[in-house]
Write a structure and sequence with these properties.
Helices cover about 0% and strands about 55% of the residues. The chain contains no helices and eleven strands. The strands form two sheets. Strands 2, 4, 5, 6, 9, 10 and 11 form a seven-stranded mixed sheet that branches. Strands 1-3-8-7 form a four-stranded antiparallel sheet, with no helix packed on it. The radius of gyration is 13 Å and the shape is globular. The chain starts with a strand and ends with a strand.
Amino acid sequence: VRLVESGGGLVQSGGSLRLSCAASGFIFSSYAMSWYRQAVGKERELVAVINSAGGSTNYADSVKGRFTISRDNAKNTVYLQMNSLKPEDTAVFYCRANILPRVYWGQGTQVTVSS
């Protein structure tokens, strides 16, 4: 299993970024996928999750209305569109696949939002 995130960077407050997570080594279309983030000095937290077909999503309260998770099963890729970014969104963002009995993580991509 391999998860590779991309799309992070430095953006001003109010700006947008689109993260991508390219997956391989498993049947991508069979599994829910999620995005997590971890800020310096804080625990890793769930940002958004999407079911295997892409028809059901859930978000952390802190990002509802600003972030959108989506997936393209033909491309084995999950996305996180982030709008109206705030300085408090600054974190390393990780893609996660829960393929029992293991959980797999990508290497993370840094998102920095300047005020």
